[in-house]
Design goal:
By secondary structure, the chain is an all-alpha fold. About 80% of the residues lie in helices and about 0% in strands. Helix 1 packs parallel to helix 6 and helix 6 runs antiparallel to helix 7 (about 155-180). The longest helix has about 30 residues, at about 35-65. The chain is globular, with a radius of gyration of 17 Å. The chain starts with a helix and ends with a helix.
Amino acid sequence: MTPLYSVIFLTLFAGLAMPLGALIAHFERIRPEWLETELMHGVTAFGGGALLSAIALVLVPEGVQHFVPWSAALLFLLGGTTFMCLDIQLSKSQTSMSQLVAMLADFIPESLALGAAFALGTINGVLLATLIAMQNLPEGFNAFRELKASSHYRPSTIILCFVLLALCGPIAGVVAHVWLAEWPAVVSGIMLFASGGILYAVFQDIAPQVTLEKRWAPPMGAVMGFALGLVGYMLVQ
């Protein structure tokens, strides 16, 4: 498989985890209710752990290679600030589409990084795609439930929107693969920028939804998500 086709396949694989998560949320019925609630919080924590593993094991280690400490920190902070401003605007708009925009805010920078870095051969594309998919699955799961509860859209319409979102990954990956592979420093910058934004999202949106009063199992989902990322990282080294 040529590198270009690999980028298309891997970004599509990672993106389709979003509608898969939505499908699971649509058909999932667990009783009693307390167990269903605890599972939802555990799934959210698992996605947060996967995001942290992508930041710590892939994006930041690769991103800092072409920058001095101060410029790397500046790009990282810029990513966090940008995601914060986007979060503020989405909060003000109060539209059901804000969930979809929030997922794209994570997925597109990651797909750009995957497409360009895969061309450069600087990272293991399968590992990064797997980590992105691990993040997108619980995001799709939770976003579907929130959209279904806060909007009038039919479940099939929501899932179709998630499928269309998944197609944005290959588009971003191909653009990066074709035009950004010549500038490895730009690729590293995208990784750092995305890392800062994703870390903001973890502690703003994901971590606060994990805890349940007098329930200790859900936070272990974060540990399990990071551990799975760690295993994948060590297997490809």
